[in-house]
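Record type: monomer structure entry
Structure origin: computed from sequence
Chain ID: A
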Amino acid sequence: MAGGTGMQSSAVAGGATRERLQIRTRVLWTDVLVTVLVALAGIGMAAVFAGSPNIRWERVARYLFSPQVLSGVFVTVALATVAMVAGCIIGVGVALARRSRLPAVRWAAGIYIWIFRGVPLLVQILFIFNLALFLPFIGIGSFGIETNLLITPMVAAIVSLSLHEGAYMAEVVRGGLQSVDKGQMEAAISQGLRRRTAMWRIIIPQALPSIIPATGNQTITMLKSTSLVVIIGSRDLMTQVELIYTQNFLIIELLLVACFWYLTLVTLGNVLQYVLEERMYRRRMVRGAPQAPLPDAAEGAGG
């Protein structure tokens, strides 16, 4: 009986092994088929673009590194950098205001987020650029300046992008702060720290691992969102490309130039985000790794 049971068990185990091998083989062939189809689709799309007689590739190469386009790339990077820095500062302030003990402060922060997240960015850009239509003078009494002189296309672009980004960063920061255990704040206060000091020294550092990846994604989104300021002509990459193709009518060629530079900037942003996240992950692993116990004094003396 025991021998029969063993033979049955061996047969069942062998059948299960063969079934697993068959499943793996089917999965392998499925992966190969999908990979081949995707590769063929990619090659086909590339061939359509490369072989099209309607695209003048020599013109694409000519304008790829032209001074006018490179100046637009510089303005785009500058716009995204300034708007992200300002947006992060605004976001931290608004996120802390959402946690205020004063209801009026919480309501004001909530209304700000509601407006600037709810209204499309393009509408915000146009609204701020045309601010002089209902507010022709900014200032008090004789101390002020005409709005048209103050709100230039570049200023309108920076203000609108910063305010828009500040609303999103407020939610990112708020989510990061909520990821920290509430007991951390209570423990810090019990140790005699002020609430504000505990927030900056204990809560925010612990929330950074949750905040930074989302901030990286917002930075990449900001690089692409700068293209919307073409509507007010702020000399960014998209504006420069539009100025060129309205003169020579090489619309597709110049749009390909813009695609190249946006893809390049976004790729660099992705690489920087990956490096930063990896560095933070390693630092957390080193800090969280268990330390080896110190040798006993007697053992050290005897050794």
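Annotation 1: Strands lie at 137-140, 143-146.
Annotation 2: The CA atoms of residues 121 and 164 lie 7 Å apart.
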